Amino acid sequence: MRRLTAASRIAIPLAGVLVLSGCSSAKPDSDDLQIVANPVAAQAAVSPAVTVKPAGQVLPGTAVSAVAVSGSTLVVALAQQPSLQLYDLNALASPPVNMPLYGKASRLTGAPGRVEIAEPDQGVVQQLTLPDRKLTETKTGGQPSSSIAYGADRLVAMGAAKDIQVLPASGPARTIGGQIYSADDVLASGNGVVVLDRLRTAVFSVDVAGGKINEGLRAGDGAANAVADSYGRILVTDARAGALIAFSASPLIMRQRYPVPGGAYGIAYDAKRSLAWVTLTERNEVVGFDVRGGEPVERYRFPTVRQPDSVGVDDQSGRVIVGSAAGEGTQVIQP
């Protein structure tokens, strides 16, 4: 695999990444971040038929839309007859607990003791607390695409509504908007909040206290998914150009751009081992990159189930979870 030299990593932010200031007065035809007249969000490359046996254990099931891990619980969102399957990671041979959802989950975000669930078709976000398995519903309207806890509040990326809802523990919600075309994911690093905009294939910093969207940077040719790491960065997969891109969150600066051919799409982060796990949908593979240094270093590569659009990781054991959007099960790999 070709690696970028230090010089080329520096050149990319200066020559290939355009910054949009906090001012939103620019006309659409002078928008430095819009690269085509009618932008379309990047999608996962279509996977070929599986020719190599998937690594690890495959749990049977229908098409998976998202996966997450919280504690010793694996949560799998099924796209058909939308529901959750809850597995005990310490007893995977046992049948899962099934919990119905209002609609298909676009994203699951795991955190200690809870999993955030976004259901865009129903205008709902839910919070699953564990181990009591209690679901709490919040109606947001619109089409929420992701949700995270942020201090005492929750931040909800509202997709085509082009904004972020701030839901306090008590009191009225407020909205943060401006500049973005599609609020597809919201992420909190150690020192900042970032929103991923798939239509503009860009990331923007968010001033939650000030209630505004700040500067934005291009995130390759087809930003697909993102995750926060342990070093104050946001890691983004570029599904069109095949790359893993790292941004510092505050200030928003591109730090690395590393080539990852094969249809880079899903991403998860193992904080205990500093490993970013990236799925390659063109190859039915998942790759583990050590991201502690100046550039990612490949440590693991495993064959997966077909159409590995979603991936999660158990920080405690290091096990990697891969969900098949083609209905070929949920894969559990012990590196």
Automatic annotation (TrEMBL):
Domain of life (superkingdom): Bacteria
Residues making up the signal peptide according to the UniProt record: 1-26
Keyword annotations from UniProtKB, A to Z: Signal
InterPro entries, per the entry: WD40/YVTN_repeat-like_dom_sf
Protein name: Lipoprotein
